[in-house]
Design brief:
The complex is a heterodimer of chains A (about 525) and B (about 190). Chain A is α/β, with parallel strands linked by helices and about 525 residues long. Chain A has 21 helices and 18 strands. In chain A, helix 1 crosses helix 8. In chain B, strands 2-3-1-4-5-6 form a 6-stranded mixed beta sheet. Classes of the chains: A alpha/beta (about 525), B alpha/beta (about 190).
């Protein structure tokens, strides 16, 4: 117990440990990574033997977490927003089966796309699965919601979706912690087969139960101390905030609110509170971090009745994260800035580190592909090597989702494109590339797959990679001809050899896997520093 | 007491260590604090910034509003200019004078200096040179913290305590080196005002 300076992610991790967590399951992804890393580094977690090893992807993470919950223990499953797309199959059906031990699923959304390919708002997933959502407005609430959230999950019998965004995940503030709880004993659900075997006949029954539970969830939101109503004199406008939007609103009213405010941090929407606000105020402004989800719910399709302002009518910007100025503007406040950014200031985009092996791979690949007069296309993937899109390399043509490099190259090859080259990292390959490789092997697709192996999950800070030391045997096991699994060391001195290998494998009319392998220079430097001590 | 600070630089220069030390010092002063930082893709040699807010009253927003920052602390001169829209009219800018050039189109230094010169309140100093003189160039970020210390409204001793608790587990030698760097930055900035 005591007061600590925690990132939002760390507050969530500590709360889970304090609440009797038995296992965290996750795949690294900004801005969620620090939750699992905190638990991995926690001495108490180590002493208790709390599971914290990285999973191969978000789907395996969520299924494993559900298994641990089935066995009665409290479990946490963490991912970035797009990770929930990968885990969505299990996620949707865990709402059908329900849980046994308390289960909290953390989705760390990234509005403004600081480190992501889209800004999807995963509260929609919570509504889609029809389970309760918690969306803390500050680090202390994040702690308390997780600390109490396992008990809430167990009381309701369903997983809870905890939604945070970048500014909550990666902002530090003082957090008061609470007493350590014991872990749950192992136990399995008495009605397990009725709930966890989702055969159609049983699933239909479960769906009715889930539908009936909706009123219970709404009542829970209405009684939740996290959803608060603040009265104020000027009822021309009533304001609804969700999550951290409350902070930006408060920042604009340091002396107290002018209009009534409904602060929402637990869903489904607390119907009675929303009705009260609508009855008392002429118009409603919705401030939410993410998509206009609440705004759409209030407006309905025909937009009759109460006038609702927000992102849909342009009162707030349609895209990007909120900040005090965006909220201030929506409220008609005067925003003053005294100095402009001088014209001399240039963009400084992120880049591959000096000395990084991916650099050597792209240099060699670019030279070989010049020989094909622009016909070659490079289908790439999610990781540091995505930065190969930027100058000086400009080496890749696509980056869509985890694993799509191999499968998109296959589709293009099926359409007649040659050469079709994939560039994927080792961790992304084991995350979602292996199944696509099997598709290629089964059809002997003429494709060249470069698994640029730096033996870590580098972009998120160097977490363990699930297939380290076994990439060749995995490819051979899937059925790639071992003579077309080529390993090379991406270094300047091997430049000609690399080019020869790439050229030979492009010309081979079947599945080739090239594995340029050299440890990430960041993890290498860190290990060397640690060894010195 | 309330102070809003923007820390800026290039990924890897050590702005988060500055934030961590100020955070420790603020905690020892019993202040409220919020500090938003950037992780992930943006760290790979790109521009980085952190919003640091301290107050004796609870703080609402994690982010600083336009025109509201009391102080910009930057480890890189061009990066210090990027956040000018956030600076108060009478706010201070404290920046390293030495450019970090990892882009082909980095502007001419005279132009960057001319922009810095337009500002009414600034401290521009070569933190790497000072760090090398008293300790090692690796402590450049702590020299910068020392230079910004007079603006922080926190007792200098509390910042020294912050250094001790942040670097304590790295050994007494590292602590002493950083304390020296802190003092050197503080002295140089004092003599410049």
């Amino acid at each position: 117990m005591g007061k600590h300076l925690f990132l939002g992610d760390e507050a969530i991790a500590q709360a889970a440990i304090d609440a009797g967590l038995s296992g965290v399951y996750a795949y690294p992804g900004t801005p969620s990574t620090e939750i699992t890393e905190y638990i991995q580094a926690s001495p108490i977690a180590k002493e208790r033997g709390i599971h914290s090893r990285w999973s191969t992807n978000e789907k395996t993470a969520m299924e494993t977490a559900l298994g641990m919950s089935y066995a009665g223990k409290r479990t946490l499953c963490c991912m970035k927003h797009v990770g929930l797309n990968v885990a969505a199959d299990c996620f949707m059906n865990a709402a059908m089966s329900g849980i046994h031990g308390g289960m909290i699923i953390v989705t760390a959304d990234d509005p403004s796309m600081h480190s992501s390919q889209n800004e999807q708002d995963n509260r929609f997933y919570g509504n889609f699965a029809m389970i309760p959502i918690l969306e803390p407005s500050n680090q202390q609430e994040a702690y308390d919601m997780v600390y109490d959230g396992f008990a809430l999950s167990e009381k309701l019998g369903y997983p809870i979706l905890l939604r945070i965004t970048t500014r909550m995940a990666h902002s530090r503030a003082g957090v008061v912690t609470r007493p350590q709880k014991e872990e749950n004993p192992m136990s399995t659900p008495a009605d397990g087969r009725q709930r966890f075997v989702l055969l159609p006949a049983l699933a239909r029954k479960r769906y009715k139960v889930l539908l009936e539970a909706q009123d219970v969830f709404t009542k829970e939101s209405e009684e939740s101390t996290y959803n608060q109503y603040f009265d104020a004199p000027n009822k021309e406008l009533g304001i609804i905030t969700t999550g951290i939007a409350f902070n930006y609103l408060s920042e604009n009213y340091p002396e107290g609110f002018e209009h009534p405010v409904l602060k929402i941090t637990q869903y489904p929407l607390p119907r009675k509170m929303v009705e009260k606000l609508a009855a008392e105020c002429k118009e409603i402004l919705v401030l939410e971090e993410g998509f206009p989800m609440v705004e759409e719910q209030l407006k309905g399709y025909l937009n009759k009745g109460v006038i609702v302002h927000g992102r849909l009518d342009g009162t707030l910007q349609r895209e990007g994260e909120l900040n005090p100025d965006a909220v201030g503007r929506a409220l008609g406040k005067k925003i003053e800035s005294f100095y402009a950014i001088p014209e001399v200031v240039e963009q400084r985009p992120p880049a591959l580190c000096q000395g990084c092996g991916h650099r050597d791979v792209y240099e060699a690949l670019n030279e070989v592909l010049l020989e094909y007069n622009g016909a070659a296309k490079v289908f790439s993937d999610i990781g540091c090597y995505t930065l190969g899109a930027l100058p000086p390399f400009r080496a890749i043509d696509t980056c869509i989702d985890m694993g799509a490099s191999i499968t998109m190259a296959k589709g293009a090859s099926d359409a007649g494109l040659f050469p079709a080259v994939s560039v994927i990292g080792d961790s992304t390959f084991t995350h979602s590339g292996m199944t696509g490789l099997l598709d290629c092997v089964n059809e002997n697709t003429p494709i060249t797959i470069i698994i640029s192996d730096n033996e870590t999950t580098a972009m998120t800070g160097g977490q363990d990679s699930a297939g380290t030391g076994r990439i060749e045997s995995i490819c051979a096991g899937i059925g790639v001809d071992p003579t077309h699994i080529r390993v090379m060391v991406p270094l300047k001195k091997n430049f000609e050899e690399m080019k020869t290998i790439i050229r030979e494998e492009i010309e081979y009319k079947g599945v080739s896997v090239i594995i340029p392998r050299r440890e990430c220079i960041q993890t290498y430097a860190r290990k060397r520093k640690a060894a010195k001590k | 007491m309330k102070i809003d600070i923007i820390l800026s630089g290039v990924g890897g220069q050590g702005i988060l260590s500055i934030a961590a030390v100020i955070g420790e010092a603020a905690l020892k002063e019993g202040l409220y604090m919020k500090q938003a930082e950037v992780h992930g893709m943006s760290q790979r040699g790109g521009d980085v910034q952190s919003n640091l807010r301290l107050s004796d009253k609870p703080i609402a927003s994690d982010l600083i509003a336009l025109g509201q920052a009391d102080l910009i602390i930057s480890l890189e001169p061009m990066e210090s200019l990027r956040y000018l829209p956030f600076l108060k009219k009478d706010g201070w800018l404290v920046t390293n004078s030495q450019p970090f050039i990892n882009i082909p189109n980095y502007p001419e230094m005279e132009k960057v200096e001319a922009e810095l010169n337009k500002l009414p309140h600034k401290v521009v100093l070569d933190v790497e040179a000072i760090a090398k003189e008293v300790a090692t160039s690796r402590a450049a970020n702590i020299v910068m913290l020392g230079a910004a210390a007079p603006f922080l409204k926190i007792d200098f001793e509390k910042i020294e305590e912050g250094i001790r608790s942040i670097f304590g587990r790295k050994g007494e030698e590292v602590v002493e080196m950083n304390l020296k760097a802190l003092k050197a930055g503080y002295d140089v900035a004092q003599s410049m005002q």
